[in-house]
């Protein structure tokens, strides 16, 4: 099935089996291996990418469902020597250990910060009339779909806060 996608700003035309997941298309057909296959059940978040600005688990969606969509992977957020603010903060705050979950964490956090900028509340947001504060509880709730087996959570939270402060 033919599908056209814009991935990290580049147009791609793919002709793949309609059962191919977005994750497998990225990794195996386009060579974008930053997004990881962790659980293959949408429970760990290692495969998180952004589609039209919103974060999704790429292992749970078929590539043919995204015809015409814009996909951003970790490779589209920054490159060595030109890291995104979140990538820089993850390095500075040691927000990774083994690094396996890091691409999904950074993609999810990038979209999460945009959600906050847009004023979207979460389940733990206290004040629905203003932008949510970046409390530990707020960040933990919003990042709950991204697991870190090394338990680098305190450093991930600090990296998110640092990047958010620098972008203001």
TrEMBL record:
InterPro entries for this protein: 2Fe-2S-bd (IPR002888), 2Fe-2S-bd_dom_sf (IPR036884), 2Fe-2S_ferredoxin-like_sf (IPR036010), 2Fe-2S_ferredoxin-type (IPR001041), 2Fe2S_fd_BS (IPR006058), Aldehyde_Oxdr_Iron-Sulfur (IPR052914), Beta-grasp_dom_sf (IPR012675)
Pfam families to which the protein is assigned, alphabetical: Fer2 (PF00111), Fer2_2 (PF01799)
Family annotation (PROSITE patterns): 2FE2S_FER_1, 2FE2S_FER_2
UniProt keyword terms in alphabetical order: 2Fe-2S, Iron, Iron-sulfur, Metal-binding, Oxidoreductase
Record keyword Transport present: no
Protein name as it appears in the record: 2Fe-2S iron-sulfur cluster binding domain-containing protein
Keyword Zinc-finger tagged: no
SUPFAM superfamilies on file: 2Fe-2S ferredoxin-like, CO dehydrogenase ISP C-domain like
Superkingdom, natural source: Bacteria
GO molecular function: 2 iron, 2 sulfur cluster binding; metal ion binding; oxidoreductase activity, acting on the aldehyde or oxo group of donors
Domain 2Fe-2S ferredoxin-type: residue ranges: 1-77
Gene Ontology CC terms, in alphabetical order: periplasmic space
């Amino acid at each position: 099935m033919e599908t056209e996608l814009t991935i990290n700003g580049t147009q791609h035309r793919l002709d793949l089996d309609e059962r191919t997941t977005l994750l497998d298309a990225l990794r195996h057909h386009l060579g974008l291996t930053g997004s990881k296959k962790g659980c293959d059940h949408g429970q760990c978040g290692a495969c998180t990418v952004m589609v039209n600005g919103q974060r999704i688990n790429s292992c749970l969606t078929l590539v043919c469902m995204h015809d015409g969509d814009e996909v951003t992977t970790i490779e589209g957020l920054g490159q060595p020597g030109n890291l995104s603010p979140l990538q820089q903060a993850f390095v500075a705050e040691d927000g990774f250990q083994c690094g396996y979950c890091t691409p999904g964490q950074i993609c999810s956090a990038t979209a999460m910060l945009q959600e906050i900028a847009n004023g979207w509340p979460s389940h733990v947001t206290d004040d629905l009339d203003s932008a949510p504060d970046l409390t530990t509880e707020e960040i933990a709730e919003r990042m709950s779909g991204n697991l870190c087996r090394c338990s680098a959570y305190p450093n991930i939270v600090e990296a998110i806060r640092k990047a958010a402060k620098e972008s203001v």
